[in-house]
């Protein structure tokens, strides 16, 4: 049964999404649903044709705080799911393999009555892209159109061998670190804010896009018991032998729905589109460069890894144009 989470009202009041000028007229509602014994948190806003948003690591539903008003303004009903281990959702010991994550998403759509003939539009980022691809491969009838951003595809994307350059190392170091057993938790515990601040600083072009209020909210969420362990589990589980075997099976399934694959100009660039083009029949996309930044004294035009927060206008515009070009 789905119900409003009243206890999260105070949390919502403290987030950027609830306090930003853009979101003053957007009503955000918090909900919870249980799927196979696991408690999932999600938020809703707006009215109209629904679109589901999935966040990446180390983020939560608030990663989409700047995109929500733009989609609502375009006449869409927005649903943002915190997958297991993210945000306010449960953080169980297991279930972080992508086949389970795909089943979670399938059951979520059924439980919340979002499943419909023709499927639902989905926009995903980072680990959310892993989940969205796995879900589209395993439950294609659930998906109308798919927007994937700033990620690799586990078991499909090739990683370069040898010693990475300094720039490449800053972009990909977490794949090795997060997979280590126990050590990440030992090093990060009690230093969650410093850890997250360093990640956001090194992976963004527009560092001002993730301000102190957002950082404090991410710190609160990832300081919760089991939250960092759950985040690391996504990497440990999907790049071990079993996870890669699952990935190989999914990669053999052609994706026939329209797909838009986007990277930041200072992130993965066109690499995601090139990878997804090997898996799907109707793939478009490329690199988002972005317009001049809005930060104080900023003249940057690039987009880093965190597209929904760094370049929300450009990302939303690309999604809207994609939907216009691929009507039901």
Q: Could you walk me through the main structural features you see in this protein, from its secondary elements to its overall organization?
A:
- With 328 residues, the protein is α/β, with parallel strands linked by helices.
- 39% of the residues lie in helices and 16% in strands.
- The chain is built from 14 helices and nine strands.
- The protein has helices spanning 9-13, 16-19, 68-73, 98-111, 127-138, 166-177, 183-188, 192-203, 212-222, 227-238, 241-251, 271-276, 307-310, 312-325; strands at residues 3-4, 29-35, 38-45, 49-54, 76-81, 120-125, 143-149, 259-264, 283-288.
- Strands 1-2-3-5-4-6-7-8-9 form a nine-stranded mixed β-sheet, with helices on both faces.
- Helix 4 packs across helix 5 (127-138) and helix 8 (192-203) crosses helix 9.
Quick take:
The protein has helices at 9-13, 16-19, 68-73, 98-111, 127-138, 166-177, 183-188, 192-203, 212-222, 227-238, 241-251, 271-276, 307-310, 312-325, and strands at 3-4, 29-35, 38-45, 49-54, 76-81, 120-125, 143-149, 259-264, 283-288.
Q: Give the structural class.
A: alpha/beta
Gross morphology: globular
Number of helices: 14
The radius of gyration over CA amounts to 18 Å
Query: What is the terminal-to-terminal distance?
Result: 30 Å
Q: For the report, how would you describe the main beta sheet? A: 9 strands, mixed
How much helix is in the residues? 25-40%
* Sheet with most strands: strand arrangement: 1-2-3-5-4-6-7-8-9
Order of helices and strands: EHHEEEHEHEHEHHHHHHEHEHH
List segments where confidence is low: pLDDT < 50 over at least 5 consecutive residues. 1-23
Average pLDDT number: 90
Q: Which strand-content bin applies to the residues?
A: 15-25%
């Amino acid at each position: 049964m789905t119900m409003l989470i009243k206890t999260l009202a105070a949390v919502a009041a403290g987030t950027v999404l609830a306090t930003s000028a853009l979101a003053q007229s957007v009503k955000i509602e918090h909900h919870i649903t249980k799927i196979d014994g696991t408690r999932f948190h999600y938020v809703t806003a707006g009215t109209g044709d629904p679109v589901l948003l999935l966040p990446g690591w180390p983020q939560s539903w608030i990663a989409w705080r700047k995109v929500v008003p733009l989609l609502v303004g375009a006449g869409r009903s927005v649903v943002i799911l915190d997958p297991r281990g993210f945000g306010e959702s449960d953080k169980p010991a297991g279930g972080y393999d992508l086949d389970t994550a795909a089943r979670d998403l399938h059951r979520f759509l059924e439980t919340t009555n979002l499943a419909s003939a023709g499927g639902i539009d989905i926009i995903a980022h980072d680990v959310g892209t892993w989940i969205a691809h796995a879900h589209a491969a395993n439950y294609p009838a659930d998906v109308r159109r798919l927007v994937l951003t700033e990620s690799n595809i586990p078991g499909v994307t090739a990683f370069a061998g040898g010693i990475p350059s300094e720039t490449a190392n800053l972009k990909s170091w977490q794949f090795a670190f997060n997979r280590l057993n126990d050590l990440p938790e030992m090093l990060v515990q009690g230093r969650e804010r410093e850890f997250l601040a360093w990640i956001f600083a090194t992976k963004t072009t527009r560092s001002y896009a993730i301000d102190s209020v957002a950082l404090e909210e991410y710190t609160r969420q990832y300081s919760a018991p089991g939250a960092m362990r759950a985040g690391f589990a996504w990497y440990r589980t999907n790049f071990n032998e079993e996870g890669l075997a699952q990935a190989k099976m999914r990669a053999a399934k052609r994706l026939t729905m329209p797909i838009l694959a986007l990277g930041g100009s200072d992130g993965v660039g066109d690499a995601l589109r090139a990878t997804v083009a090997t898996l799907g029949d109707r793939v478009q996309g490329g690199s988002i460069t972005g317009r001049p930044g809005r930060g104080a004294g900023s003249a940057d035009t690039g987009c880093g890894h965190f597209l929904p927060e760094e370049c929300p206008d450009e990302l939303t515009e690309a999604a809207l144009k994609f939907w216009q070009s691929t009507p039901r």
